[in-house]
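Troubleshooting entry. Yesterday's outputs looked truncated, so today I'm pasting the complete records for two proteins to confirm everything comes through intact. If either block looks cut off, that's the bug. Protein one:
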Amino acid sequence: MEWTIQELAVRAGITSRTLRHYDRFGLLAPSRVGANGYRYYDATAVARLQRILFMRRLGLGLPAIAEVLADEVDTCAGLRAHIAELEAERDRIERQIRSVRQTVEALEAGAEPRMDVMLAGFNDHYKDEVISRWGERVFQVSNDWWHGKTLDQQLAWKQAAEDLVAAWVAAARAGVSPMSERAQSLAARHVRWLSQIPGTPTAEGDRECSIEMVQGLGDMYVDDPRFAGMYDDAAGATFVRDALQAYARTRM
């Protein structure tokens, strides 16, 4: 199957002049030129044009595109990279759609949209930290899970998390031991809370990694001033860490 230059231009949403320019620049030659002087393009040429148009949409100039195509020895590998980039773009757009829908839900309910709920995602603030500790997959799966929730589900989940933090603070202020039944009950509740998040070791039943994750979170609560503030003060964060680490050592 072949298309003339006019047919290809119409189907690609560009002009014949653009295709001729790509030819002069060495990016895309016609598959053949007929005796009548008409330019014809086959499937291989269209696949190459697909790559060119995609890179143009990403903002690459023609010299950069020419360099990329010159380095490609495997057309299928280039197209697979194209697919991966398109899928990432699709995921980004889907997250934006969900965010806008959640904003509409809030406005229609007469509530003020919360930017932390609407835009930040489950753990976007800690993306690099999550990936460095537990890997890209944990971040991606948990982040997709969060963005897949409705506004009401997000608010309910955040309220449950705030209730858990408040219970930890109350226990710390009461001066109970991290090894006490009250503290260990809170640690068990904390681990159950973690197990609700897809992608995490606690959700997937990986005991060894779950222990490592719980202990690592305990350390992070103390080492990171953001969490010290969350648990009232440094002493509160230390109490949470010690209770979680004791729970991980003895009950997980």
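Protein two, checking that the full record survives here as well:
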Amino acid sequence: MELSTWLTFFAASWAISISPGPAAIASMSAGLNHGFRRGYVLIFGLVLGIWTQVLIVGVGLGALVAASSTAFTVVKWLGVVYLVYLGITQWRAPVRPWVALADAPVFVSQRAMILRAWMINAFNPKGTMFLLAVVPQFMHLSQPLVPQYLIIGVTLGFTDLVVMAGYTALAARVLGALKEPSHIRVMNRTLGSLFVIAGSLLALFKRAA
């Protein structure tokens, strides 16, 4: 991949990462519930999800998902159900004022956080469709494809690590200042509702004709 091509893709990857979506909601939820240091672990799962999508597109399975109505529907509804599940879980999350977390933290295993985040990005057919539409514009088919996919995967992973860190830090800093249980409850339900809305929007998403 030529430097000029990579720089264009690098700029585009920032726009991709910054645009609000389930990953951003998950990052803010992690910052609210676990603080920045523990919440940031979730972002590695998001990146693994992105790499899974790049791998799916790279080996040709993305085209299968795009062409097969059954495969597309299965992947889509897995994503919908999972996002709605996350929304209900966040909505029903116990009210824990941030000031109490330092003395009595509620730990969630890092493996569980990473798996949760991986599923958010891996089971998202919109991501597959997006990569199928965008990635070929930056590929040189006459050159080896594997190195190009590696560069694309690393670039998307890097920008997501930085951008989602910002979302997590914002939640941990701003929302962490909340002390009233009613405020925490409102934020939990707001984030939970955003998950459900994201799932609903995914349910409406259709394959390109």
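Both blocks look complete. Sanity check on protein two: The two ends are 31 Å apart (CA to CA).
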